[in-house]
Amino acid sequence: MIAVNAVGDIIDPATGQVIAGVRHPKPNVLGDARALMTTGLFDSALRLSNTTIGVVATNARLTQAEATKVARMAHDGMARAISPAHTPLDGDTIFVLATGESDAEVNLLTLGAVASDVTADAIVRGVNNAQSLGNYPSVHDFRNPNE
Fold it and tell me: CATH homologous superfamily for 2-132?
């Protein structure tokens, strides 16, 4: 589960396309957060608060160290779907919850890789399903500007 309010652009890792991000002065056009940041044109003073925060849950039995490792790997999914991620203007955080219901042996490589994938997928899915809020358009508005 992920709540997305990132400073950076949202990238669909399957296509490499920017699907959400900084608004351009032209209607229904996205800017390029990375270009604005690297040229110094991004006005960080205008940002009030941004973050992407989420939870990856598993039925595995994990130690605190193992859960931390899975969370670190889940952050890779965040970095695949948000560019740039983890900026000084974001509070990007992933929590890992382990119910311990399963007695199966834990393969951290597999669990971490899956956590990374589901994190990226959840970010893209959340943005694709978002609705407009006031003057803040959703992806739907950019795809269907006349609706």
Answer: L-amino peptidase D-ALA esterase/amidase (3.60.70.12)
